[in-house]
Structure formats: structure tokens, C-alpha cells
Amino acid sequence: MREDILTTKQEKLARLTEAFGTVYPEQTKRTCSNAEAIASFDKFASTREAVVLVGRVRSFRPMGKIAFAHIEDGNGKIQLFLSEKTTSTEKLRLFVENIELGDFVEATGTLFLTKQNEKTLEVTDWNILGKSMRPIPTEHFGLQDEEEKLRRRYLDLLTNTETRELFIKKNIFWQTVRTFFSSEKFLEVQTPVLERIPGGAEAEPFVTHHNALGQDFYLRISLELSLKRLLVGGYERVFEIGRVFRNEGIDREHLQEFDHMEFYAAYMDMERGMMLVEKLYKDIVQAIKGGMVTTHGGETIDWSKPFPRVDYFSEFQKETGIDLSDEITVDILQRKADELGVKYEKNYGKGRMIDTLYKKTVRQKLVEPCFLVGHPLEVSPLAKIDPKNPRKVLRFQPIAVRSELGNGFAELNDPADQRCRFEEQMKLRAAGDKEGMMLDEDFLEALEYGMPPACGFGMSERLFAVLMDRSVRETVIFPPMRSDE
User: Fold this and answer.
1) Helices marked H in 321-469 — which ranges?
2) DSSP assignments along 36-63, one per residue
3) Domain extents for the chain?
4) For 254-282, how does the pLDDT look when each residue is reduced to its tens digit (9 = 90+)?
């Protein structure tokens, strides 16, 4: 900040402090919000009842012996009118000479309608509530750099109404999820963020140290294994909305920490699980978009239609020529990847290679909302085997605009089978795959006490980002950022 600007602000701060005793009072005498004043304008204007309004100064026009300003609180904006007729000469001069954009004020007065038909407060008295010691970016000279908007989000929120509206809609998004599951008789719970063994997803975890217990813990990468333990404990329907952490790269769809929801319903099969998820998604779209049609990257998406089922094996063979029903080796998959120009790591196992090819071929063709079903066993270490085809599992994924928008399973509840799956994952970790799952003995012990058949499903705020046609990072209020130094 330029030294002359700071000096000027400090001088105004000193004058305001001398006049009011403090520029940062503890409380205000506000009688209503700006929005409430405007909504009840006729009543206040006809009775000439005095009201006390507060807010940040967003515009200021001194005009000799009168002045106009707009103040904005969290609910709305209203115009102030100051003149020597109603405001003392000293208070008017103090306002005109020392108040700037960004300052917070409390204004007392009566409401009237200007010649331009603007609802306005005629100020009889005012007080300072807080001084802005840095110049606030204006509409025309705001934050231009996208990285700066994310790094200094408070200024983006302050100067960009669209950004503020975005996070109001995000609140509606999660409230819709919460209301939906409560109406479906699910119990909302909170499970630990710190885990001895991270599980429930294929992702590299963050590590932290617990001083009191003298041991390392992992930040959870999923909510799954804790919620399944609750099914063992006797709850029939549970869900959680919570933060998860994955030490992976940043792109349009991935972030290291994000809000995630998972539900688990005992005695619910996969088909009923898909019906429940489709209903949830349609409720969400309606709640935050006000209709069932959205746009993404210039494409129009209709969420009102029934979500069709897309078979993984059939589409994979169509796009790659490889029949996953056959005995397929890693070498075959790598040669196909080389042929298609798909990048992969040399230590990828069969499951990771299948998944990598699928994401670059099959998924790129899935634009309208659908459910991908019939996944190969190798890419689904926590799902039940399909009794009709032992090479497949009972898993479903809602997909739209080429993005995976959730993940559901007929949950594996055979402890012996689960142990074998964990052991295969541990072999991948030993070979260098940091995202392979760890063997969790405590979870296996819980399964040995018996878990009922269940459907489980998880979704993150990626769905919200897709519906708003934004990157995930843009839809997080304060995303993790590289230092600007």
C-alpha cells in the first residue's frame, strides 16, 4: 500500500477516534437489517418512525452541504442522505471529510423516497463502527488475477456479488442433502478425522502426529470404514457430511481437502440405492438451479430424464477393443495405453491400468446423467462380487459431463473376502502404489462380528462444481494455495 494513502487513512482514523472515543465500538443500536427496512418501507415512511441501520460504505457522493452514500450489510444495500437540515453541521463535516469506501457506519434516521424513486434513509445521526485501513478494490479496479481472487477470497467476496451468491447456493446444496437423508430416516453422525489406518478410497493420505498419544495418525481419506462399523453396531441407516483429505494433485476436479458425504443403508440393494441417489440428485439440481436443465462447458444437460445404466465391460470393449471377460494381463493393457497415447506409471497394477484406460476412453463419451455399472473386480476392492459374473462387482457411479459424480456399492460384508482384497492392495503398495489401500485389522475384526447386507454411497462437492460449471477449487471458499512468495 502506498505510504501517502496510509498516512491519509491514519489521519482520518485519528480524527474519528477523537470525535467518537473509539472507532471500533463493541455494539450497535441497529433496529433492523437493510433488507427489512426496504421491505417495510411503507410502514416506516408513513409513520416517520426512526430506524437504525448499519453497514459498510459501498458508495459515497459528497455534494457541498449534502452527501449521499450507500451502506451494505449482510442482507442488502440502502442509500443514506445527509444534510445540514437533519444532521448537525459538525456530524456532516466529520462524515464528508473522514468516511471512505469500506468503512462501517451506524446511521439513525427516517425513510423517504427520493425524486429518483430510491428508498433512502434521511440521516439524523451517525456513528463509526470500523475503519478500513486499506483501499477497497472497486468494481472497475478489483482483483483481476484468478489466483489472487482465490488467495484473497475475502476481497473477491467483498467486490463480487456473483461469488457471494455462489456460496449461498453451496449452503443450499448441503442443506438439501441433509434434509433429504433426514426425510429418508437416516441418522446423521460424526466420525473421526484422525485415523490410525486410512481406508475407504484409493488415495495417498496426509500424516500428522498426535503428541498426547505419542503416535502418528492419518487424516481420513474417506468416511467409509467408520460408518460401516456403525452398521455392525446396529444402526440401520447412517450418513455423514464431513471434510476428507487426499494428498493428490490439483486440477479442475481434484483438491486436497473437500467436503464429502457418504450414506450406508442396511438391507438396501444396489438397485434401490441407485433409485435413492437419482432422487437425491434431482432434488439438488432443482434446489440450486430452480429447474432441471443446466449448462456445462457450453453443453446443455437435462437432469429430469431417468438415468440410464451403462455397462462398464461393454463400453470398455467398444472403446478399446479389450474384452475384460477374458484373461487380461497388465502387459496387454499397457500396450493398448501406448497405442492410444494414454499415460501411466510403470508400477500400475491391472486395476489401475483398467481405470486409467477407462477414464481416457469410456468416460469421455458420458455426457448426459447416467449410472455406470458392472465394474471389474480389480478396480473395486470394497464391493461385493456380482453373483452373475465373478469378474464384476456390484458397483454404480453417477456420471455426467465426463465426470464421476459419486460412487456406490453393494457393500462387501464377508470378512475373509475383504481380507484377501486388502492383501492384494498391500501388494500394490509394496510395488510402489501410494494410493493402494492399507490392511485394517480393526475393521476386519468388526466385520467378523457381522455386518448386514447394505448399500453404500459417497459423493463430494464435485457435483456442486459441475452444476455451477466451475472448477472444484473455485467452489471452495478458502482453497489450499501455493504461497505467493
Assistant:
1) 330-340, 350-360, 415-430, 441-448, 462-467
2) HHHHTHHHHHHHT--EEEEEEEEEEEEE
3) 3-130, 158-308+368-475
4) 889 999 999 999 999 999 999 999 999 99
Of 65-79, 420-434, 449-463, minimum mean pLDDT range = 420-434
Listing DSSP states for 393-415 in one string gives ESEEEEEETTEE--EEEEB---H
Pairwise CA distance, residues 152 & 335, whole Å: 46
The pLDDT mean for the chain works out to: 93
The CA distance from 395 to 411, in Å, is 9
pLDDT in tens, 84-143: 999 999 999 999 999 999 999 999 999 999 999 999 999 999 999 999 999 887 654 456
| CA 73 centroid distance within chain | 24
What CATH superfamily is the domain 3-130? Nucleic acid-binding proteins (2.40.50.140)
CATH superfamily entry for domain 158-308+368-475 = Bira Bifunctional Protein; Domain 2 (3.30.930.10)
The cell for 372 is 455406470
Block residue for cell numbers 462387501: 412
The CA angle 467-473-478, to the nearest 5 degrees, is: 120
Which class for 17: exposed (0-12), middle (13-18), buried (19 or more C-beta within 10 A)? middle
Q: Which three cell numbers stand for residue 347?
A: 508400477
Q: Return the C-alpha cell found at 222.
A: 474417506
Q: Please report the beta strands in 205-298, taking only residues with DSSP state E, as ranges in sequence order.
A: 207-210, 215-219, 237-245, 257-266, 293-296
